[in-house]
């Protein structure tokens, strides 16, 4: 006798258990896929966020006076306080963006206690992807006649330090991946000291 005859339902039971098993298997598979998709979405979101905060972030470049400036002409008089200097000024345009910063012509103004004593012009150019563009420009710093008999100047010169400031605005565009562009303005606001005994620039500080 076949064993089935003892139990009228074994086939049916077997069948139902396999369907249950395959259903369970399918559910697990679906769960696995759902997890994969969720993980992928989280990963993708992470990548996008990371990208947005690094590569796609537009940072304002820094425009600064560099200490590596020297003097060709150095004439500072203490008896009748006056100065006449020709400085080989070095400027830096520091671009930390993931793309070039293209800027226009600009003028840098030098002041002694608020009185303009000279200016330099920087030609339009660009600072490349995450780099500092260095520009050397000669600038004449000449005492204007309205500073003659200025007591501050007399005391500064006798102390051995001529304090100066430089100011400028550099207008340009940051370009990321050739298509994303944003205007950015780099402000220069520096203070520096001309050391009269060493004929060098010292304590160059830029904001
Ligand atoms: C920038 O300056 C140069 C000469 O100094 C001049 O030829 C050029 O036209 C200027 N560019 C702009 C956009 O003014
Ligand atoms: C500076 O002082 C001298 C002498 O005291 C005077 O002759 C001269 O006119 C003054 N110059 C200016 C620009 O005030
Ligand atoms: C530069 O600094 C001076 C003094 O702190 C301030 O008055 C001026 O607004 C600053 N300029 C820029 C462009 O930041
Ligand atoms: C000028 O520079 C020399 C050499 O670095 C230094 O010893 C001196 O103190 C400086 N003078 C002033 C007034 O800071």
Please tell me about this protein's structure.
The structure is a single chain. By secondary structure, the protein is α+β, with helices and mostly antiparallel strands. The protein has two domains: 9-53; 62-206, Immunoglobulin-like (Sandwich), CATH 2.60.40. Helices cover 26% and strands 49% of the residues. It contains two helices and ten strands. It has helices at 10-53, 151-159, and strands at residues 62-77, 82-95, 101-103, 106-112, 115-122, 125-127, 131-142, 161-176, 180-195, 200-206. Strands 3, 4, 5, 6, 8, 9 and 10 form a seven-stranded antiparallel beta sheet that branches. Strands 1-2-7 form a three-stranded antiparallel beta sheet. A hairpin with a 2-residue loop joins strand 4 (106-112) and strand 5. The longest helix is centred in the N-terminal third of the chain and has 44 residues, at 10-53. The radius of gyration is 36 Å and the shape is rod-shaped. The protein starts with 9 loop residues before the first helix and ends with a strand. The mean pLDDT is 90. The protein binds 2-acetamido-2-deoxy-beta-D-glucopyranose (4 copies). The site of one 2-acetamido-2-deoxy-beta-D-glucopyranose (NAG) has 2 residues, from strand 9.
Task: Give the number of helices.
Answer: 2
Major sheet characteristics:
7 strands, antiparallel
Q: Share of helix among residues?
A: 25-40%
Mean pLDDT: 90
Ligands bound, unique: 2-acetamido-2-deoxy-beta-D-glucopyranose
Q: Based on CA inertia axes, which overall geometry fits?
A: rod-shaped
Structural class: alpha+beta
Strand count: 10
- What is the N-to-C succession of helices and strands? HEEEEEEEHEEE
Radius of gyration: 36 Å
Calculate the terminal CA-CA distance, rounded to whole Å: 100 Å
Which residue ranges are poorly predicted, with pLDDT under 50 across at least 5 consecutive positions?
Answer: none
- Assembly state (oligomeric): single chain
CATH topology call of the largest domain: Immunoglobulin-like
Number of domains: 2
Please name the CATH architecture of the largest domain: Sandwich
Region (Disordered): 1-24
Keywords: Membrane, Transmembrane, Transmembrane helix
Biased composition (Basic and acidic residues): 10-24
Protein name: Late embryogenesis abundant protein LEA-2 subgroup domain-containing protein
